[in-house]
Write a structure and sequence with these properties.
183 residues, alpha+beta
C-alpha cells in the first residue's frame, strides 16, 4: 500500500508549480468582458452566458468531485482509487459538455493540451471568437486551482504552453452527443 504521508508530501512539494492567479479581476463579469473583447462580432449575451457557465460548472464540479486540496493532491487521490474524478481531463470534458449546451454562435470552443503524452500533460478549454486563431483565445482551466476557475489569454499563460488538441479523443469529446441535461 502506498504511504499517505508520501502522497501528502508530494502534493505540497508540487502544489506551487501551477502559479498564482490574481483574484481581483477574475470574476464572471471580467471573463465575459475578456470574451467580448476577442472580436466586435462576439455577442455580449453569449460572452456572459459562457462566463457564467464556466464559473458555475467549475464550482459544481468542485463539489461533485469532492475536492479536498490542491489539484495535484486530487490527482493523487484519483490515482490511488480514493476519488473517481478530478484529473485535468475530467474537468475539461465535463466543462466542455456544459459549454456545448450553450449552442454558441459567435464564440468557439477548443480542446487545449500542454505537454501532450508526458507526465506533465494538462488539458483545458480555449474559447475564441468564431473563426479566430487558437492562440488569440482565452484559456479556461477548472483543474489548475481545484475548481476555482483560472482563465487568461492563451499567450499570457506562463504555466502551460497550450496548443490545440486535434487528437481522436479530443475530436470525439468535441462532437459526441450530449445526452440529457444534468438535473
Amino acid at each position: 500500500m502506498r504511504s499517505p504521508l508520501l502522497l501528502i508530501t508530494l502534493a505540497f512539494l508540487y502544489a506551487g508549480c501551477v502559479g498564482v492567479m490574481p483574484r481581483e479581476n477574475h470574476s464572471p463579469a471580467a471573463l465575459a468582458n475578456a470574451l467580448q473583447a476577442l472580436s466586435p462580432a462576439v455577442s455580449p449575451t453569449e460572452a456572459r452566458r459562457a462566463a457564467d457557465c464556466a464559473y458555475t460548472t467549475s464550482a459544481r464540479l468542485k463539489h461533485d468531485y469532492q475536492i479536498v486540496g490542491p489539484a495535484i493532491f486530487q490527482n493523487g487521490l484519483v490515482n490511488l482509487g480514493l476519488r473517481q474524478k478530478g484529473l485535468c481531463y475530467h474537468w475539461t470534458q465535463d466543462l466542455l459538455r456544459e459549454m456545448r449546451r450553450l449552442d454558441l454562435h459567435t464564440l468557439q470552443i477548443h480542446w487545449a493540451v500542454s505537454h501532450p503524452r508526458d507526465f506533465l500533460e494538462s488539458n483545458a478549454l480555449v474559447i475564441t471568437a468564431h473563426g479566430q486563431s487558437f492562440s488569440g483565445g482565452v484559456v479556461i482551466d477548472a483543474w489548475r486551482h481545484a475548481g476555482d476557475l483560472y482563465w487568461n489569454a492563451v499567450t499570457a499563460d506562463r504555466a502551460f504552453p497550450w496548443k490545440e488538441d486535434l487528437s481522436a479523443y479530443a475530436r470525439k469529446k468535441m462532437t459526441e452527443p450530449l445526452g440529457p441535461p444534468r438535473s
